[in-house]
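New to this. Explain the following:
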Amino acid sequence: MLKDLLQNGTPMEIFATFIALALVAASLLCLVFIIWGGITFILSAGNEEKIKQAVHTIRYAIIGLFVCFIAFFAVSWIARILDIPFRLDFSTIVNLMQDVFTSLSQ
């Protein structure tokens, strides 16, 4: 899908694909930081400084995840308002992720 898109796609389709990939990457990074903060919290052994750092990591990762979802909906909404042929939906993101993981496993 990505190779066909880069060869035959319109600039708007390519732009939408890269925005979808960026949103997926940002969301995955947020989830990784939430897990990292949880592990740090568990391993803090009562150390106040480590607990504070873990709570901040989790808090900022959740805020980042929230911003990713707002960005997804804002881009879709603005595209509809301005009548831009910009299709970015969940099935497109799932197909992109399948293509990326398939290409990485080969």
About this structure: The chain has one domain: 14-101. Residues 57 and 102 are 31 Å apart (CA to CA). The first helix runs from residue 2 to 8.
